């Protein structure tokens, strides 16, 4: 596996990806500076799947970047493109959600950038088709958490140092979220709702709420969808479920059955 990242962020990203607090990266993971186009294009030639995501609610991946990565002349073996988008149906949105973003959490998804995400999705679909690859759109709401929880309990997610980076109190609510919300639910299509009038109270909430998505849950859903035939040329949303343990392989397989209905 390989990850493109800005050269200026390389050390921070390596720190966040380190296993068990040891500072060592997984042997099968390579970070590639975005400026190293020779290495990127070498890797693209043999890559059979690409995962594309942007964490910022105000940004989507630039069409020029999509066209560069999904250039039929650069990719020879591409089978699937999985892209993270957002819940765009507008349900559970409105002034309370927008107010919560301004007052409590700038990363609240309030649907204000929906047009850009719709365009992004179409760009992904068009570019994948030109490469002869399938696409999968994975939808998220307000992204929360994303690291390993207490005591590096789940090292497949970001390292504990993530909590220091996001800390603005004695205990970061991101850690509390990761400890309390390890469950996941999937729904086919663009159907999940936002938090509605409860948004001001849920913006930094560490319990199960409508309109939230766990970064860890979304990332794992994206990766696992690669092995799900029914996920090809489909979109589905990722929501949260209160749980102290992450889903098992069997539970993930059961959740993905929603795509076959």
Automatic annotation (TrEMBL):
Taxonomy, superkingdom: Eukaryota
Protein known as: NAD(P)-binding domain-containing protein
